[in-house]
Amino acid sequence: TEQGEAIAEKYANHDIAERNLEQMLNAQIRARKNAIEEPVEEIPDEWEEAMETAADAARNEYQDLLETDGFVEFFEQATPITVIENLNMGSRPASRSEDRSVEDLRAIPWVFSWTQARCIIPGWYSIATGLDAYLENGGDMETLQEMYENWPFFRTKLDNASLALARTDLEIAEEYADLADPELRERIYPRIVEEYEDTVEKVLEITGQDGLLSREWLQENLERRNPYVDPLNLLQVRLLKQSHRTDTERRTLRLTVQGIAAGMKNTG
Question: What is the distance between the alpha carbons of residues 132 and 74, in angstroms, rounded to a whole number?
Answer without folding.
Answer: 27
